[in-house]
Amino acid sequence: MNTAALSPPTGESALGVSFERVWSTSGIQFAFLCIVAYLVYGHQPEVGASASALAAFYHGERTRILVAAVFSGMAVLYILWFGAALRTALATAGQEGWGAAATAASATLGALFLLLISVSAMLAYSIAGSDNAALVSGLNDFEWAVTVLTSFPRAMLIMAGTFGLWRAGLLSNALFGAGVGAIVLVLLGGTTWMSGGFWAPDGAYSRFLSPLIGLVWVLVASGALLAHRPGARTGW
Question: Which pTM was predicted?
Answer without folding.
Answer: 0.88
